[in-house]
Structures are given as C-alpha cells and as structure tokens.
Amino acid sequence: MKTNAIMPLLASLKLKGMAASLERIFCEAEKNAAATPDVLAALLDEELRYRQERSLFYRLNKARIPWDLSLATFPFEQQPAIAKHQIMNLADAAFVERGENIVFIGNTGTGKSGLATGLLRQAILAGHRGLFYNAQDLLDDVYASMADRSTSAFIKRLTRIDLLVIDELGYLNLTQEQMNAFFKLMADRYLKNRATIITTNLDYTKWYDLFASKDMVDALLDRLQHRCITIRIDGPSLRTPISDKPNRRKNKK
C-alpha cells in the first residue's frame, strides 16, 4: 500500500505515532489481508501508545526527580525497620487520589528519600503529576519569589500538583515570611485534597523547635495528620558498609 499521500496529512495533524508505524502496519495488513477497521484500530492504538509515552516522559521530566530510584531497586532486605508490604500497598498510588499524606520519619541514611522517590515515580506511572523538592530549595524558592511578588502564583502552581515530595525537612534557617508561605502552601494543598510526602529526621514534637510558632505548628499538624500515614524508620543507615553492620542473626542452640 502506498503511503505517499497519507504521510503529509499525518504530519499536518501531528499524528506522530501513526506516522511512525504506518509502513509497518500497512505491510502487515497487506500480508494478512486485514480488514480496514482492524487497520484503523491498529493505527489508533499506536497513536495512543505514542502519546501516553510522551506524556509519561514529560511528567517524569517535570517531576525533577534527582535520582534514578524505584521501589523495584530499593534494598528492603538491608532495612529491617521497613515493612515492605506496607510500602508496596502504597505503590498503586491510590493514596494520591484520596489526598492522603505520607510522612517518613527517621535518621539520615535509613531510606526515607529512596522510598519517597519510589512512590513519586509510581504515582507518575499511574498518570498523576508529581514534583520533588528538597525542603531547603523549596523555601529558598519561596524567598526568591518574594522579590518579584510572585509568591502567591508560586504557591498556586505547587497546589495544583497531584503529589508533592518535600525531602529533608530538618533544622533549616527560616524567616517568618518563609514559614508563613510554607504554612499557606500546606493549608491550600489540604483544602484541595492534594497528597504530600514529607521526609524528615524530626519527630512531630520537634517541629515546634523548627518553626518556633506553636499555634502555626498546631494548625499545620492538624491538617497534615488528618489524612496521613506516618512511617517511622528506626533502623541502620543504608550507607553503612554491610561488613560494619551488627550481626542480627540469633545464635543457634
């Protein structure tokens, strides 16, 4: 079958998936004497697949995930403090649709960021829009937005994200304006039923030291914990060489 007349039309209509597979599908149709509806369905399937792949690539790129980490490669066997089944139950990203938050609390190196990144990637694969932010970078961008008075627009943009990951919320140098903007962001995401993942080495009682305003922290935790899964990781650092970790095997009698 000749495609010379069809290719320019596909190009004009920006049907790149169909254009890329046209020759192959036509050859297979001619060989197998396929019916016209079957040929059309095959072309539309290729276009849909192409657009889904492009959408996934775009969303992964926009998420700004800093590491190539996934739940499939996470070393669960090295971190006995993590219940693998609990994490994998979250991998379908249904918590995003429910607007539930996840807070990972644990010492440095225990796998908090890896799990948060893995869940973010799963959410994007499920069709959601996500964004990764280091906590200090987020608050620095908030501070920068104050210079051109774009803080409101910045918060609105982050509020629209289906899943926001805020990594390494710890002892930071914060101005009152930064704290106000952070509380505004979290309050708006709560009202819009948006999911947020926070990783931190501070248990909730220490957040009062971080933000210094009891009333504001009370309001923040009230919203954050309303729909929240808290996962505490009291285990060894994954960065410690295996040979240096204590032997957890019980002595056989």
Comma- or semicolon-separated keywords:
253 residues, alpha/beta, Rossmann fold, 2 domains, 5-stranded parallel sheet, 5 strands
Oligomer: single chain
Compute the number of structural domains: 2
- Number of helices, where a helix is a run of at least 4 consecutive DSSP H or I residues: 11
Q: What is the CATH architecture term of the largest domain?
A: 3-Layer(aba) Sandwich
What percent of the residues sit in helical stretches (DSSP H or I)? 40-55%
CATH topology of the largest domain: Rossmann fold
Mean pLDDT: 89
What percent of residues are in strands?
5-15%
User: Would you list the SSEs in sequence order as H and E?
Assistant: HHHHHEHEHHEHEHHE
Structural class: alpha/beta
Neighbour order of strands in the largest sheet: 2-3-4-1-5
Structure description:
- It is a single chain.
- The chain is 51% helix and 12% strand.
- With 253 residues, the chain is of the alpha/beta class.
- The protein folds into two domains: 6-62, no CATH class; 64-239, 3-Layer(aba) Sandwich (Rossmann fold).
- It has a five-stranded parallel β-sheet.
- α9 links the parallel β3 and β4 (195-200).
- α7 crosses α9 (176-191).
- It is elongated and about 75 Å long.
- Residues 242-253 have low confidence and may be disordered.
Write a brief structural summary:
With 253 residues, this protein is an alpha/beta fold. Helices cover 51% and strands 12% of the residues. The chain has helices at 6-12, 16-32, 36-63, 84-89, 94-97, 112-125, 135-147, 151-159, 176-191, 207-211, 214-224; strands at 101-106, 130-134, 163-169, 195-200, 228-233.
